[in-house]
């Protein structure tokens, strides 16, 4: 009968930069290795394999035998190796030069590793903009695949998606395959016979077509419940056996063979898009709920199925609008990228070229997509992934400083629009610290990079509404009604998993950024619980605009920020000065002066600090006082009286951060915990530890009051750990 249908199987394996070692290993044992074990028994069934660079580097070190097996399969022609941007960035989330740089760098790496040409690539999260065509072609790519929904949005009917199309930008031509959604939902979850029937219908109605299945390799064993289904219950072998049995009309092949032997179906320009769920997640929470409600309302209306292809969600880049923390991370990444480009353009000395290359690799690692968005899984909400991004950004930035600053002990301060909001922020930097202040937004310290630990202690995350929070609330209602009425309450819990009890009681939302130098005027006598719940505020300083001025000498830099605002009916003035001295480059000093205060009125002033990335729930992460006495783990709620020092230690990270107060204060501490969804279910995640020194006082006769707060960071343990690890790896 001959080949009437070509089937291309594309497997995409990925683990993000910064993910836990155990997750890498578990995915290897449950998915990557057993998948190859089975496919090796079917040498006549080829497939295309994409592995993200972050995972590939781990495999090279942890399981070189896997690399050898893939190399053998590539040499035999069973496996086509696909490339892509090295560390799996969203292409829309990085500059054009880095798109091309990441793709070409990974192509070179794969060629050396496997000795095979790299002609096609995987587009991370299938986030697409038409201008990427020229970027991919300039990076040496011939073809890629995107979801069939991209083609639907361009007006291509389903029956016209059995092949590939040419797409053009600035005269460059790229071949793009539609990735079949029906197959993505069937494989590996339905009986293989059903998939063969579906393919047979296409072959009968559209002979000589090409159909592509491309999806996550982790669904073959690493996703919950899939290992037993795919391997122990034999789904994968049954599927491959059926492909063999139907080889008289069905040819399993690769993308490269298809473009070499099959003509394109035509030309097509694709709109900015991603897969359907991603475009919905990019919407604000209220818009997501509205869209879900409308789809549910009209799903049974005649003609709705024909209308669905024209429904659009949001635009991926708006994740940076939806989550301000993403914009901070993105802006920091751009700053590093621009500095690196500038040094490349002006040229560096030959001795500095290895440093520049290392900085570029660190930058590329910091562009890994997973924490730059949030959808069905944790992403942005996972602190260890955000911390990994900042770790590599700080490493890249520090390497670039080695080139630009020959003096090992240096200071600088500058004002510019660092977070892309059309207002000027202030960057205060030394060989040990980098701080970013936002005078136009409360005078907050919104990023503080500790170079010795490669850690941003302000990689915080606000608590905000998410659409799935309604599921948690409904679960609580079902539980309450069930307990009262004696009814079965399992229906919601059967659909979703809750990793901790009573999550609905933890649903709180923040009305101002969880940063540092957040200035509060509280009601006198207000208690900790009121503050935890966002109450007790009398002033308008929390997010008010401050006027700023900079000063620099050879020995220190300072930023002075002043605001006239209100505390209840009183107009007062607050000036805070942030200083960084050369002889104490690991310490920031914050001097507060309050003036024009009423002289006969009790006042209550507090300064909020947040410490992120210092984990909770562990005995080696704790608070301590001026005597060095441990006060509790970093998720503790504390209401301390009249102390002049509080510290936070993360022994695993090797970081000790301490606040010293010139005037003893009462101090509140409490955790910021979000509730997000992940592969394992809904879970409570510790995001930061809030520390608020606060003072109740009456102003002096001149209506003044002042205090100095010193924040010191000791990274000696982190640096000793890094040296030990470097020595071990060198050995």
From TrEMBL:
The EC number(s) this enzyme carries: 3.2.1.1
Glycoside hydrolase family 57 N-terminal domain sequence ranges: 9-270
Enzyme class: hydrolase
Entry GO CC: extracellular region
One GO MF term attached to the UniProt entry: carbohydrate binding
Keyword Hydrolase: yes
Membrane-spanning segments: none
A GO BP entry: alpha-glucan biosynthetic process
Domain Alpha-amylase/4-alpha-glucanotransferase central: 314-400
Lineage: superkingdom: Bacteria
Keywords: Carbohydrate metabolism, Glycosidase, Hydrolase
Start and end residues of each Alpha-amylase/4-alpha-glucanotransferase C-terminal domain: 417-709
PANTHER family linked: 1,4-ALPHA-GLUCAN BRANCHING ENZYME RV3031-RELATED, 1,4-ALPHA-GLUCAN BRANCHING ENZYME TK1436
Annotated family: Belongs to the glycosyl hydrolase 57 family.
Full protein name: Alpha-amylase 1
Gene expressing this chain: amyA
